[in-house]
Write a structure and sequence with these properties.
This protein is an alpha/beta fold. It is built from 19 helices and 17 strands. It has 3 domains: about 190 residues, Rossmann fold, CATH 3.40.50; about 80 residues, Methionyl-trna Synthetase, domain 2 (Beta Complex), CATH 2.170.220.10; about 160 residues, Isoleucyl-tRNA Synthetase, Domain 1. A 5-stranded parallel beta sheet has the order 3-2-1-13-14, with helices on both faces. The chain has a 4-stranded antiparallel beta sheet with strand order 5-4-9-10. The longest helix is centred in the C-terminal third of the chain and has 31 residues. About 45% of the residues are buried. The mean pLDDT is about 95. Monomer.
């Protein structure tokens, strides 16, 4: 089987992330990783907190603590939430790790040696009130492109355009709020992306056929506009230090690498963290996933559209310039925005549902299923409590949960605590088997293609097939005249429950485990079932003990909806 490297956008350290962050990167990466593992592939799912840059310093200052302490606490808080969502990372690292420092500095030295980094004197914003040069995010103002008045000096959150601090209108210090800013000269390192333009274009041309249109169109837009040389160092106290053995003057001034230079390298750094964290007696080869791995590893990356340019153009330019055989991404799965009643989720403005509050409100599987079933793939999608409740009630509670409960409860009442034998399968079971095999093939096809909404629809259709079969056979009537026929119907339905448990695991792992756990099987695994194997619907043998699990999904009532809207806001949020 193939080796699959999977990464998702690194969540920034300053605060708990919202549902838009979850569906735009980490959750679909987790679903895909789980699916691949079930299919028997060797999978490594890597993520980390992105800890450098000005927001971390500003957040630490607001919290009244050191940046290192703030990041350590925030990393643990984020990891707890992701554990609650059952994100099955192989490793969830930190971009402030010594492994990332080491590899980032190695990349910088190689780029310098190869002529793709140069030192330049530039004009930079200086704040006399603060007594320091202000890195990009320490400068706020009005975006010259869209007029947004809270744009940062590196990027406008509203229109996503990349900026320089000197581009902003009416700039002010994010530290003190002072508008008494000056432009002074200082020295920084620049990555000469312009010299790598043609190489990046050729690389994109070789790979974009495997990317969704969103990713390829964003990459092409950036390449059409032309790659510009960009400063990759900043005047900060927190970050990967510029190595003194290569740039002694800049190191003495305390320069650190720009977060967007070291953050993508952290995917490699976090893999080394994973290897270094191996328990006694276990050896992990981190480098085989990244170095000279083009023919042995398929690398799939997940991120929202604002991050796509950095990973389809900017980081590939860095890797190409290093002139070493580091693994480059094969597929970039980009996502549009998830909105909240049509308005943008915003970490900085605390608008929308944040992941910790989501878990306090309802179990993770409710959120996982809804977000994947409504993933913002071809366009933006909107979260509303009304849509959320309708999806949970119809798909999870009625279609899946009710099927599981009524089959197992009725069989236990009529035939006891073991799977009944009953009659030989007939025409209805043969038709069902063909339909299940067809839908499972469709589900696999969409999962392989990273088409999440279509995959969720195929899974929902699989659940519906069981309900249609149950309505057709009506074992509650059948048992009055044909007990063996009713036993066959229930045994077939129990096999469907076991199948649902396996194929639903990537989306709803907790509920899937509960369904599997209903049957006392000697080898209870979530190993994938092929469409051909599923067709027979005979994996659960007669005589297998079973129990009736607690209700899998509680319906969301009108009273629940009212309380959720009151807490989180509704259409006027």
């Amino acid at each position: 089987m193939a080796r699959h490297l999977v990464t998702s956008a690194l969540p920034y350290i300053n605060g708990i992330k919202h549902l838009g962050n979850m569906v735009g990167s980490m959750l679909p990466a987790d679903v895909y990783s789980r699916y691949l593992r079930q299919r028997g592939h060797d999978v490594l799912y890597i993520c980390a907190t992105d800890e450098h840059g000005t927001p971390a310093e500003l957040a630490a200052k607001a919290a009244g603590t050191s940046v290192a302490e703030f990041c350590a606490q925030a990393h643990n808080a984020q990891k707890a939430v992701y554990d609650g969502f059952e994100l099955a990372f192989d490793h969830f690292g930190r971009s402030s790790s010594h492994q990332n420092v080491e590899i980032t500095q190695h990349f910088a030295r190689k780029l310098w040696k190869n002529g793709f980094i140069e030192e330049r004197a530039i004009s930079q914003v200086y704040s006399p009130v603060d007594g320091r040069f202000l890195p990009d995010r320490y400068v706020e103002g009005t975006c010259p492109h869209c007029g947004y008045d809270k744009a940062r000096g590196d990027q406008c959150e509203n229109c996503t355009r990349v900026l320089d601090p000197t581009d902003l209108l009416d700039p002010r210090s994010a530290i003190s709020g002072s508008t008494e800013l000056e432009i002074r000269e200082t020295k920084h390192l620049f990555l000469l992306q312009s010299k790598l333009q043609h190489e990046v274009e050729a690389w994109v041309a070789r790979h974009e056929a495997d990317w969704p249109q969103l990713s390829s169109s964003i990459a092409r837009k950036w390449l059409t506009e032309g790659l510009h040389d960009r400063a990759i160092t900043r005047d900060l106290d927190w970050g990967v230090p510029v190595p003194a053995d290569t740039w002694p003057e800049l190191a003495a001034e305390g320069k650190v690498f720009y977060v967007w230079f070291d953050a993508p390298i952290e995917y490699i750094g976090a893999t080394k963290e994973w290897a270094d964290a191996a328990p006694d007696g276990e050896t992990r080869d981190w480098k085989s996933w990244w170095y000279e791995a083009n023919d042995t590893v398929r690398y799939t990356q997940f991120m929202a559209k604002d991050n796509v340019p950095f990973h389809t153009v900017m980081f590939p330019a860095t890797e190409l310039g290093v002139r070493e055989p580091w693994k480059k991404v094969d597929v970039v799965k980009g996502f549009n925005w998830l909105t909240y009643y049509g308005g943008k989720f915003s970490t900085s403005q605390k608008r929308g549902i944040f992941t910790d509050a989501a878990l306090e409100t309802l179990p993770a599987d409710y959120w996982r299923y809804f977000l994947i079933a409504n993933a913002p793939e071809s366009d933006d999608s909107s979260f509303t409590w009304e849509h959320f409740a309708a999806t949970v009630n119809k798909d999870l509670a009625d279609t899946l949960g009710n099927f599981v409960n009524r089959v197992l409860s009725f069989s236990r009442k009529r035939f006891g605590d073991e799977v009944p034998a009953g009659a030989t399968a007939g025409e209805a079971e043969a038709r069902l088997g063909e339909e299940v095999a067809r839908l499972l093939s469709e589900y696999e096809e969409h999962m392989d293609a990273l088409q999440y909404r279509k995959a969720a629809a195929a899974l929902r259709a699989l659940w519906s097939a069981g309900n249609s079969y149950l309505e057709e056979k009506a074992p509650w009537l059948e048992i009055k005249t044909n007990p063996d026929g009713a036993a066959l119907t229930l045994r077939t339905a129990m096999n469907l429950i076991h199948l649902y448990a396996i194929v639903s695991e990537p989306l709803i792992p907790t509920s899937a485990a509960a369904m599997r756990g209903a049957f006392a099987l000697e080898a209870d695994t979530a190993t994938w079932v092929t469409p051909e194997e599923a067709k027979s619907l005979t994996m659960i043998q007669p005589g297998t003990p079973f129990t009736v699990p607690p209700v899998l999904f509680a319906k969301i009532t009108d009273e629940d909806l009212e309380s959720y809207r009151e807490r989180f806001g509704g259409s006027d949020a």
